[in-house]
Amino acid sequence: MYVIEATNLTKKFKNNTAVNNLNLNIEEGSIYGFLGPNGSGKTTTIKMLIGLFKPTSGTIKICGETVHFGKVNALKHIGFLPDVPEFYSWMTAYDFLKLSGELLGLSGNILDTKIDDLLQLVGLQNNKKKIKGYSRGMKQRLGIAQALINEPKIIFLDEPTSALDPIGRKEVLDIIYKLKGKVTVFFSTHILSDVERICDNVLILNKGIKVIESTITELKNSYGIDTLSITLSSKEEITLLTNRIKDCSWVKNLDPTETNLLVSVTDIRNAQKEIPKIVSDHNLHLRQFITKEPSLEEVFMQVVNNL
Q1: Any residues with CB less than 8 A from the CB of 117 and at least 6 apart, and which?
Q2: CATH: 3.40.50.1370, 3.40.50.620, 3.40.50.300, 3.10.20.740. Which one for 2-222?
Q3: Is 205 exposed, middle or buried (CB count within 10 Å of its CB: 0-12, 13-18, 19+)?
């Protein structure tokens, strides 16, 4: 079942087309990576999907209900964490979630239980500190809890790990991953390693246009370049090996250093077979031979730079 559907979604600001004929079909329960450089149209897309921006053209459906700018029917299905969430700084996390729940018509034991569960999920249980004393990471975690207070079917996260330190990023990503299968996560970011870690599918957006959409494994298989890292005992041996393989049909790029050679290859099986044979035939002293799988960052750079 598709819980997010967008057809020919377009948004123009005067002479600038921020989003251009975007089509989306996102399955229930998935963690969907919405990836692109800064200024690619990610936030504009999210604001259209949740009804904050009126599309120039195109249609949007959330859980089968058409989204109309200024109307709230479809909003009951969603939670939203903006890139810079705002809070009442004099409140505690409990106070803030209680206010959020009451605004949605929740009360009593049902609300109290929900707040306890959410604070446990985001690691803020038993925290009596005022929000004004929270770190950026703690605020992001509280923002996720607030976005889940209405038990949405979809949660939209706009750059939730941006500007966080490594510990804060890990904490937020761990929380998002726990939501898999329970709620659909629309995860907008420009941090490729975050997408690679937790997402099922990824869409790459550039200058408002969908460049490609696929699973991460399929992207790597289609666009990734395998690399071999070979360490020998001397610069002379690296030079010899470089000269022996530079004209091989499976070599895409060679990057020699003092005692190491990085070989980007188009046929990993042939490379893994031929290079050890050359090393053995010339009595080279092999210290290390590592196959490096392509990263999402490498795939992203190749896809975007080839436009």
Answers
A1: none
A2: 3.40.50.300
A3: buried
- Maximum Cα–Cα distance across the chain: 79
259 and 238 Cβ atoms separated by less than 8 Å: yes
Could you tell me the pTM of the whole model?
0.81
Q: What is the pLDDT of residue 275?
A: 95
**What value does the mean pLDDT take over residues 27-41?**
91
pLDDT at residue 120, rounded to an integer:
95
Distance of CA 74 to the CA centre of its chain: 24
CATH number assigned to the domain with residue range 225-306, chosen from the 4 options 2.60.120, 1.10.10, 3.30.70, 2.60.40: 3.30.70
- Tens digits of residue pLDDT in 208-254: 999 989 888 888 777 777 899 999 999 999 999 999 999 999 999 99
d(CA 49, CA 78): 10
Tell me how far apart the alpha carbons of residues 5 and 14 are, in angstroms, rounded to a whole number.
26
